[in-house]
Amino acid sequence: MTARLHHVGPVIVDVVMTVDRLPEQGGGAFADTARTVAGGGFNVIAAARRAGMEVVYGGAHGTGPHGDLVRSALRDAGVVVAHPPRPRDTGFCVALVDASAERTFVTHLGAETDLPLADLRTLRPVAGDFVYTVGYSLLPGERADELVTWIGALASGVRLVVDPAPVVGAIPPATLDAVLSRTDVLSLSAVEAAEVTGVTDPSVSVSLLAGRVAPGGVVVLRDSAEGCLVVCGGDAPRRVPGFRVDAVDTNGAGDAHVGVFTAALAEGRPPLEAARRANAAAALAVTRRGPATSPTAEELERFLATRV
Question: 0.85 cut: is pTM over it?
Answer without folding.
Answer: yes
